[in-house]
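Running log. JK asked me to keep both predictions on one page so they can be read side by side. First protein, sequence followed by its tokens:
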Amino acid sequence: VLGLSKDASHEEIKKAYRQRALQLHPDKNPGNEDAKAKFQLLQKVYGILGDEEKRKVYDETGSTDDDDLAGAGFDGLVDYFRAMFAIKTEDIDDFTARYQGSADERSDLLRYYNQFRGRMEVVFDHLMCSDPVLDSHRLRDILEGAIEAGEIQRFKPYTAWAKSVASRPRP
């Protein structure tokens, strides 16, 4: 519509919009329905590309608004929501950095430990952002502290697991 490349600057978009708007404006083309429709499309395009946030969403998703969902089948909706709510590796890394060592992680760990009666392989299956190889020593330290403080009881499956972890070097 504007005849620009995808990486056009804000100033280039603004300049191209003004030039096209002068050509297509309804006052310059009275009674020309085609020019009117093109002008309305131009307005919509500039409304998206001229706004930094809307342009960012458009560049990432190719979507301009909810009208894109009209008549979309299930697969289309799945694709739309995957694009709109895309999770990137750095998002997961950021969340992991905030979660590990937090009060929420400790609370979840103690809850799963009690729920699964010390079966740590099941605890690891349920505890977010945990890896048996990388986190065993750290989680063992938390659980030992909670046991010593009387917050939780020592379960037999945990005792065997903790002994195994203690015999390995920390990662």
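And the second, directly underneath as requested:
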Amino acid sequence: MAILQMYPTEAKGNRARMLTTLAAMISGIVLGKSCQLPVIARKSPDQAKADSRIKRYSRWIQNERIDYERYYLPFVKELLVNLANIRELVFVIDGSEVGHHCITLMVSLIYGQRALPITWLVVKGCKGHLSERLHLDLLSQLQAILPENCQAIFLGDGEFDGIDLQAALQALGLRYVCRTAKNTQLYEEGLPFSFGDLLVGPGEQISIPNVWFTREGYGPVTVIAWWERGYRQPIFLVTNIELAGEACHWYKKRFQIETFFSDEKSRGFYLHKSHLSNPERLSILMIAACLAYLWVVYLGLVALRKDWVKVIHRSDRCDWSLFRLGLALLDHFLNESLPIPVSFSLVSNCVR
């Protein structure tokens, strides 16, 4: 069973049963394209009655012994370690509604053209800015799993420009680029100004180093007013990266996390329609949903590397995402009764 491939010793007893249930839930999520337990139960391969499966899956997400460290970290730890040996790790933080009146705050790893879920927390609330304390809690979770001496970059939108978060990132030796507001109070050599004073025009990029950020005077940092040609308005960034062009290059990658949330939600597994309202249970359900996502991305890589694209899509070009390719390849294998590869390890297919 592929779910066992990241464990150094053979799982036995209760651990083996928990992993078997996890594998069945992953199958049900992908085949049912849903995170609702009744749908997962109907689509998962099991001889037990659907009602029995629903109860088993419900017990699984309520089980206090099911946690991120034992049931998800083994699958991403290898990826982080191996990628850290060949390049900088690029992380994106963002939040999105999941379940019923809950929000997940997620750190994802940019991998190729995709954002892979790395660590998260789930809290009660609706879409909007979460407290900086939660941002720092999630950063602590990321810090605990970062490979030793790795080089990493941290990207965030305007919700994540808090000075405590910036200070924590700086203390960890992480480079960062975060969006900020046009009216943010800035200081250069003691003189106050804001981004609105820079009068940036279309196609222009204005950067100012050694700036003190907000009235609290955090810094020094570099601030950037960037109006990329073709966009209706500029964006404003704060960073500890000295070169503005490099900071903008990295920030462009932030938008890739939007594809992860749409894949987990409206284009894929409808995580936001799970009908769960308990943050702890949602956080555990996300273990299965995120592993399902990794499996589908793996299938997308198989489609590319094994020349299946011309069979499931078209022969002259490919304009589908890895996620969409993975789902299409799975449909093809099922329709043709072909063996289905299952793996949650993307290491052998590393994309720079």
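Observation for JK regarding the second prediction: The longest strand covers residues 114-124.
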